[in-house]
Design goal:
The chain is built from two helices and no strands. The chain has helices at about 1-10, 30-40. It holds the Pfam family TraB_PrgY_gumN.
């Protein structure tokens, strides 16, 4: 999932994006957010 998100984000150029990820993607080791951070993306939680 992280690879597909990175592909989509890179395809649209440099801009700000809002991505919603379901709760099930937060419960695993090396989750989607961790993978995106490793790729250099800024990840913010919104409460």
């Amino acid at each position: 999932m992280a690879n597909k998100l990175a592909e989509l984000l890179e395809a649209e150029g440099k801009s700000t994006h809002f991505v919603v990820i379901g709760a099930a993607h937060f419960v695993t080791k090396d989750m989607v957010l961790d993978q995106l951070k490793k790729k250099g993306y800024t990840v913010e939680f919104i409460k």
